[in-house]
Amino acid sequence: MEKAKTKKLRIAFESDIDYSTTKDEQTGKNNQKEDKPESKGLIWEFIAIASVPLVLVLGNSMLVPILPDMQERLGISQFQSSLVITLFSVTAGLVIPIAGYLSDRFSRKAIMIPSLIIYGGAGILAGLGAVWNSYTVIIAARAIQGMGAAGTAPIAMALAGDLYKEGTESKALGLTEASNGTGKVVSPILGSLLALIVWYAAFFAFPVFCLLSLLAVMFLLKEPKKEQAPPKLGEYLRNIGAILKQKGRWLITSFFAGSMALFVLFGVLFYLSDILEVAPYHIDGVMKGLVLAIPLLGMVVTSYTTGSLIKKNGTLMRWLINIGLVLMTVSLGFCIWFYNKSIYVFIGLLTLSSIGTGLLLPCLNTMITGSVQREQRGMITSLYSSLRFLGVAFGPPLFGWMMDKSHQTVFITVTSMSLLTLILAFFFIKPQGKIGG
């Protein structure tokens, strides 16, 4: 009788195991948070994760409105001022893959915590460089900040994949993208307000936000324990190579799409920051920050809504990716003729493009984090984030160079890039069913 009862319990237990996954995948699923209604603790975890991309964006986008002031105060060129954004992003883009490997090798928090400290400390150094009127110190500090930034938002994305599954994961990833966008909305306004105190106040402001994020990561996030020893470097790189060989067509296309979207977004911010101050607009100060925030607000609302709705529905993601890229292509295409007709029409078109970006990015985030097991997730998300940073890096200087040619050149180029990405995504990004099993 006792044996029969034990047998029944064993059968009932085994029937709950999903044999379509490997043992490691099943263990990883058991360690992740279930798809239950958000408890108070889960909400605080979401806030802690979302604070990391928010701080990252504040440290970059908050400087966009003050670039013209920096040119005037330090006696530097438009290209030199754009390097304040570009050098930060290039350094981050180069270091991110290393940070990703280290986060897989050790732990996510072991990389995020010192990275946030470096990021905030270098921000103070950049502020001192501005006080000393030293462009060299500012640029050096921004490069160090880029190194710190490499271990922040990209690792937070991987950690969200570790902590949650199903709809909760896509919601968390949508929230990180929305937080990223919220930072972009708030930062031009905040940067413009701080500039009313003194033009370099923004340099000293974001280390404060950095400290708050650091405390949230340290005390509110509990990282799941690793179930097995991490592979050695050689084996790890072979695993990454195998993933890229097997899934490279859609992964590389997804990497390119994310990079292109950020290239356009930051390029447009740089473009608007420059043209709004001159004829026929003459919009400056806080009002300029508010205008810059309008397209970004469209992206934020769309990103959060998209992340909440997609769950892990591959078919829905494919539709939204293509719709987002169509919106970007069409709206940027109309800007070729309407960029100087009406500020309302122009900002409306750029907002439509940003809504397209808000449809695109959460889908890419969910697909990429769900494409690999936890042991390689840090590297794969870091490769993706690295290319996104490079898109941010080259946006301002290339937009500045194209603006010297003509304003129409700017929009012909970005429309062509969006159309190319749409074609590639249509043929190569074809998620179906449930992403990540």
| Whole-number tally of structural domains | 1
Oligomer: single chain
Total DSSP E strands: 0
Q: Which topology does CATH recognise? A: Growth Hormone, Chain: A
CATH class: Mainly Alpha
H/I helix tally: 16
Mean pLDDT, nearest integer?
81
Largest sheet: none
CA-CA gap between termini:
39 Å
Concise synopsis of the structure shown:
This protein has 437 residues and is an all-alpha fold. 81% of the residues lie in helices and 0% in strands.
Structure, described:
This protein is mainly alpha-helical and 437 residues long. The protein has one domain (42-223, 239-428): Growth Hormone, Chain: A (Up-down Bundle), CATH 1.20.1250.20. It is built from 16 helices and no strands. Helix 13 runs antiparallel to helix 14. The model is unreliable at 5-37 (pLDDT under 50). It comes from Paenibacillus ehimensis. It is a multi-pass membrane protein. The chain crosses the membrane at residues 42-63, 83-103, 110-132, 197-221, 250-273, 285-307, 319-339, 345-364, 385-403, 409-429.
Based on the model shown, name its key terms.
437 residues; MFS_dom; Growth Hormone, Chain: A; 81% helix; globular; 16 helices; MFS_Efflux_Transporters; MFS_trans_sf; mainly alpha
Detail the topology: elements first, then pairings.
Layout: H1 2-15, H2 23-31, H3 40-61, H4 67-74, H5 78-105, H6 108-131, H7 135-149, H8 153-163, H9 166-195, H10 201-220, H11 233-275, H12 285-309, H13 314-338, H14 343-370, H15 374-405, H16 407-428
